[in-house]
Amino acid sequence: MPFLSRLPCIATALVLVAGLLSACSTPAEKPMKTEVSESTTMEKGVPGGVHTRTERLEATVRTINFDARTVTLADDDGNMKTITVGPDAVNFNQVEVGDRVTVVYTEETVVYLKAIGETSTDGAAGMAAAAPEGQKPRGFAGGTAQVTAVVKSVNLEHHTATLEFPNGDVRQVPVRDDIKLSNDQVGREVVIQITAAVALSVDKAE
Question: Of 1, 34, 54, 164, which is the most buried if we count CB atoms within 10 A?
Answer without folding.
Answer: 1
